[in-house]
Automatic annotation (TrEMBL):
Classification lineage: Eukaryota, Metazoa, Chordata, Craniata, Vertebrata
Annotated compartments: Early endosome
Transmembrane segments: none
Positions with biased composition (Low complexity): 95-104
A Pfam cross-reference name: PPP1R21_C
Region described as Disordered: spans on this chain: 84-104, 608-627, 760-780
GO biological process, one term: regulation of intracellular mRNA localization
Protein name in UniProt: Protein phosphatase 1 regulatory subunit 21
Length: 780
């Protein structure tokens, strides 16, 4: 399957690549055509420039011809001016000749006037044609520049797309190689999985055979040795003690504790709300300290004064319910008997709400009828009256569902087990409705308090009581929201915990069976505690075995130990004898040392005395002294051997007898050397341990860094996957944009062709008009 998917992906990618390649070729052709069109336009511009130059030359020739004609006209005018006086002189002589000259003059004037008008018209046409030609030329050049810019942009886009496509091709090739490697690995894994499945099938067959055999044995044992199956009938099964789920009980106790805290907050908020409402009635609209309030408000305040007797039992009932849920009990709806008392307290509080509701509505109506009440305040009072009705209705709804939940612990047929989940969901909906109603009350009361604070007759007592009522209402909304969210979060657990009960049954049938089951559970727990008697302290088994082996070995080697003791005693006695012997020798050596010191001192004295004697006497004394010194040096240089517990001490001393102090120094040096060696070994071991500790820390740091790098790499893998998906999306968008650009380019090319054709037609018309003008000028 994986290889087929990979092949399908690869085929799709190849098809996309071929499509992109074909689109690239089409784009290249379009760019080449555009370049050819731009070259043609350049040639057309050159031709137009040449035609413009020709027209300018013709215009120059026409201007030159006009100048010649103007000069000719001036000459004719001069001749005419000269001929006029002559005509005056010769009036009489040639009246006929004057008439002829006047006719000729009128003819010349008409011709001259026509040529001047025609020249002006030609000048105007030439100027208009020149201006139009310049305008067309500027437009064509601007269009050419824009077309060149667009061609460059299209070329850049084509180059960028080719680069992107080459990069995508490389990426796809790399992905193809990776996918091939993955396909190979997946094939290997598939082979391994097939082998494993075969092994698992064999194991399953063996297990099936084994379990079938065990089932037959167990069925035969049950049929032979089980006299009565109490789980077969639900009435008997309900008396069986279920498995103790300590986690479930702790969870239920924790939930009950949280619910108790929320109910306590709600009770305090309700008490504050009712008491501050009572204070407000005593102040507004009539202050009881100044004037007597209405009998309706008196009755209403009397009822509100009794709110604690109805609100406090709610907290007490919830506390009793919390105390009934312990670690040793089984908490289901059939065993929570204290829920009934909480339901009764809730019904009493709802009766209190029903009792005070009409008085509260009438009190609000009385406030609306007072002269201090404005239209906005009247609207707020009407909204508050509707909210109070909703609040009472929500509490009634909540009490009905709580009463239904309390039925299984008192009346088993009052509520079917299949309806437990729907009742719990409806309780959550009622709590959410209570929260919504309290939000509306807080909103409307806040608006009402702001309006009342703006009244000129608002006292400080009214402002403070309104603030207190607002704080209590906010506390009520917060408590209702917390209870609603808490119940919504735990409703799934409540629904799931309903199945907690006896084995192989739907649950407890009646409260009586549940109570019997709890009694049996207590008896079973007492029996288990009685069985758990504290054992006497004894030696552990392994230690006893080791002591037994030691005892056996000691009894077997008692004789050997006695022999070893005797041998050690003999060694001790020998060592003591050696000690005494060496002590005596040390004393003798001291005596000899003293004698030797005296003898050396006497010799030194005799030598000092005999220095004054002649050379004859010196020689024999010198020979004797030399012999004595040689003897003494021989005695000094001879090694002295001493055997003791430490070993053989071989040393050469200046004295004949070994010194005790020198021997003690040798022993001390030996032990000091040993101590130094041991300390060096200890330091080496400490350094090795420190080194190993540092290496361990470094390895732990490396491990932490490796884990961090692993997490970073996983995140990078996720980012890379996201980038791949993003690039695929970009590829699709670029395809679409590329197609849109191609369509736009084709439309633009069509519009350019149309404009070029129009320009050609305009140029042809201009050429035709210029040719006609030139012909007319030539004819003139």
């Amino acid at each position: 399957m994986a290889s087929a998917e990979l092949q399908g992906k690869y085929q799709k990618l190849a098809q996309e690549y071929s499509k992109l390649r074909a689109q690239n070729q089409v784009l290249k052709k379009g760019v080449v055509d555009e370049q050819a069109n731009s070259a043609a336009l350049k040639e057309q511009l050159k031709m137009k420039d040449q035609s413009l130059r020709k027209l300018q030359q013709e215009m120059d020739s026409l201007t030159f011809r006009n100048l010649q004609l103007a000069k000719r006209v001036e000459l004719l005018q001069d001749e005419l001016a000269v001929s006029e006086p002559r005509g005056k002189k010769n009036k009489k002589s040639g009246e006929s000749s004057s008439q002829l000259s006047q006719e000729q003059k009128s003819v010349f004037d008409e011709d001259l006037q026509k040529k001047i008008e025609e020249n002006e018209r030609l000048h105007i046409q030439f100027f208009e044609a020149d201006e139009q030609h310049k305008h067309v030329e500027a437009e064509l050049r601007s269009r050419l520049a824009t077309l060149e810019m667009e061609a460059a942009q299209h070329q850049a886009v084509v180059d960028g797309l080719t680069r992107k496509y080459m990069e995508t091709i490389e990426k796809l090739q790399n992905d193809k190689a990776k996918l091939e490697v993955k396909s190979q690995t997946l094939e290997k894994e598939a082979k391994e999985c097939r082998l494993r499945t075969e092994e698992c099938q064999l194991q399953l067959k063996n297990l099936h055979e084994d379990l079938s055999g065990r089932l037959e044995e167990s069925l035969s044992i049950i049929s032979e040795k089980v006299p009565f199956n109490d789980t077969k009938y639900s009435q008997y099964n309900a008396l069986n003690v279920p498995l103790h789920n300590r986690r479930h009980q702790l969870k239920m106790r924790d939930i009950a504790g949280q619910a108790l805290a929320f109910v306590q907050d709600l009770v305090t908020a309700l008490l504050n709300f009712h008491t501050y409402t009572e204070q407000r009635i005593q102040i507004f609209p009539i202050d009881s300290a100044i004037d007597t309030i209405s009998p309706l408000n008196q009755k209403f305040s009397q009822y509100l004064h009794e709110n604690a007797s109805y609100v406090r039992p709610l907290e007490e009932g919830m506390l009793h319910l919390f105390e009934s849920i312990t670690e040793d009990t089984v908490t289901v709806l059939e065993t929570t008997v204290k829920l009934k008392t909480f339901s009764e307290h809730l019904t009493s509080y709802i009766c209190f709400l029903r009792k005070i509701l009409p008085y509260q509505l009438k009190s609000l109506e009385e406030e609306c009828e007072s002269s201090l009440c404005t239209s906005a305040l009247r609207a707020r009072n009407l909204e508050l009256s509707q909210d109070m009705r909703k609040m009472t209705a929500v509490f009634e709804k909540l009490q009905t569902y709580v009463g239904l939940l309390a039925l299984p612990s008192t009346e088993p047929d009052g509520l079917l087990r299949t309806n437990y989940s729907s009742v719990l969901t409806n309780v959550g909906a009622a709590l959410h409705g209570f929260h919504d109603v309290m939000k509306d009350i807080s909103k409307h009361y806040n608006q009402k308090a702001t309006i009342e604070h703006e009244l000129p007759t608002a006292t400080q007592k009214l402002i403070t009581t309104n603030d207190c009522i607002l704080s209590s209402v906010v506390a009520l909304t917060n408590g209702a929201g917390k209870i609603a969210s808490f119940f919504n979060n735990n409703v799934d657990y409540f629904i799931a915990s309903l199945s907690y009960g006896p084995k192989a049954a739907s649950g407890f049938i009646s409260p009586l069976s549940a109570e019997c089951m709890l009694q049996y559970k207590k008896k079973a727990a007492a029996y288990m505690k009685a069985l758990r008697k504290p054992l006497l302290e004894s030696v552990p088994y392994e230690e006893a075995l080791a002591n037994r082996r030691v005892l056996l070995s000691s009894t077997e080697s008692r004789e050997g130990l006695a022999q070893q003791v005797q041998q050690s005693l003999e060694k001790i006695s020998k060592l003591e004898q050696e000690k005494e012997h060496w002590m005596l020798e040390a004393q003798l050596a001291k005596i000899k040392l003293e004698k030797e010191n005296q003898r050396i001192a006497d010799k030194l004295k005799s030598t000092s005395i005999g220095q004054g004697v002649g050379p004859a006497q010196e020689n024999p004394t010198g020979v004797n002294a030399g012999g004595q010194e040689e003897a003494s040096t021989k005695a000094v240089l001879e090694p002295i051997h001493s055997t003791s517990l430490i070993g053989i001490l071989t040393r050469t001393s200046d004295n004949e007898v070994p010194d005790v102090e020198s021997r003690e120094d040798l022993i001390k040096n030996h032990y000091m050397a040993r101590i130094v060696e041991l300390t060096s070994q200890l330091q080496l071991a400490d350094s090795k341990s420190v080194h190993f500790y540092a290496e361990c820390r470094a390895l732990s740091k490396r491990l932490a860094l490796a884990e961090k790098s692993k997490e970073a790499l996983t995140e990078e893998m996720k980012v890379a996957g996201q980038n791949i998906s993003r690039l695929q999306d970009e590829l699709t968008t670029t395809k679409r944009s590329y197609e849109d650009q191609l369509s736009m380019m084709s439309d633009h090319l069509c519009s350019m062709n149309e404009t070029l054709s129009k320009q050609r037609e305009e140029i042809d018309t201009l050429k035709m008009s210029s040719k006609g003008n030139s012909k007319k000028n030539k004819s003139r």
